[in-house]
Amino acid sequence: MLTTGALVGAMLTSITTGGVLSAAPAKADDVTPPPVTVYVADVILNQVVSIAPAAGEQTAVGSGLNQPNGVAIDTRGAVFIADTSNNRVVKVTPDGTQTTVLDTGLYAPTRVAVNAAGDVFVSDTLHQRVLKLPSDGGPQTTVGTNLRTPSGIAVDTTGNLFIANFDGGTVVKIPGDGSPQTIVATGLNRPDGVAVDNAGNVYIANQGDSRVVKVPVDGGPHTEIGTDLNGPSGVAVDAAANVYIADSSNHRVVMVPAGGGGQSIIGTGFALPTDVAVAPAASPTPPTPSPGTGSLSGFGSS
Known about the structure:
Blueprint: H1 4-17, E1 36-42, E2 47-52, E3 57-61, E4 68-73, E5 79-83, E6 88-92, E7 98-102, E8 109-114, E9 120-124, E10 129-133, E11 141-143, E12 150-155, E13 161-165, E14 170-174, E15 182-185, E16 191-196, E17 202-206, E18 211-215, E19 223-225, E20 234-237, E21 243-247, E22 252-256, E23 264-268, E24 273-280
Antiparallel strand pairs: 1-2, 1-24, 2-3, 4-5, 5-6, 6-7, 8-9, 9-10, 10-11, 12-13, 13-14, 14-15, 16-17, 17-18, 18-19, 20-21, 21-22, 22-23
């Protein structure tokens, strides 16, 4: 079985050798930054940072991280981090307090998501499962079946869970009402990130093909989002349907406005950004800055 280091190393190899090898950075068009805060996990720099595009500010979030691959935000502004090589999930509240959500029984957790009720979902990747941690403190459960290297996860406004099967080439949906699991998209090439907008449209970071695709809720044809991407690993959507992409091998985060139009770069200087999450500016103040680096002992991606 793969070790944690082998998993993240293999995934990094898939980023750096797959897709466009020499994509030129896209020009940042004259687009007004949306009033949001964007959170980015950088697996090589061992940190998560928050970016306020409108203010041009960047702040470290969390401490003692080791190859963090995933990041999510709850409705109260708390940041959840899949701290992959520490085999744990941590929570950082708006005042900067960091606590451990789960640090037992995990094997290379790569992504995390939180629903409106506060339930936490974790891609326990090398255990080939996704866990649900109820907000009321009840026992954790396993959700989904026949998963193959589950990576990106997302929850929509009605409680449906979406899982990207990195090695399975699919994205599946676990309905919140308990009905059977269904396939949202198939024939994908190393799908690594997934997001859902308020209308129910699904966005997939199809890392192996260096593109992000949108799967319409009405079942219409898939469309491509963004340009000049290179091994994108993470994707997020804000309330206005603007799309944010962790463009991993271009070492940047880009934003594609709702409805298309000029793509803009909202963050650069990353070593390997693997996931992105977004919170509205009206959310509580981002967590207090803290030293966000751990030992650089290997590399990888979710």
